[in-house]
Amino acid sequence: MKFDAFRSILSKVGKIAVVQVITQQLMAFSVAYFLGFGLLNSFYISMCTIFGATPVVVKMLTDKHETSTRAGRVDIGVLIL
Fold it and tell me: Taking the model in full, what pTM does it have?
């Protein structure tokens, strides 16, 4: 993906990424905490869920040849941020 294509959607990607990261981290933290993990361990688990999905989603988008579409670029941008 060219950087110019990414730059054109950067503001939308940034807003979506912030909301997605906060929501996902809160949900994962809550689940881990209620399963009996401590505060620090719950935080680590929630951080792992944020970064662990990136390679899987990028591989799926690549297999479907959607990395060059606008939606695919937005998805990759959200995951990278």
Answer: 0.60
CB atoms closer than 10 angstroms to residue 63: 9
Residue 21 has pLDDT above 80, yes or no: yes
* pLDDT above 80 (res 13): no
Judge contact between 50 and 35, C-beta under 8 A.
Answer: no
Q: How far is CA 11 from CA 17, 21, 43, 76, 77, in A?
A: 10, 16, 28, 14, 10
Kindly give the interhelix angle for 39-52 and 54-63, rounded to the nearest 10 degrees.
20
CA distances from 19 to 12, 31, 34, 65 (A): 11, 18, 23, 26
Q: How high is the pLDDT of residue 32?
A: 94
Domain ranges of the chain: 10-80
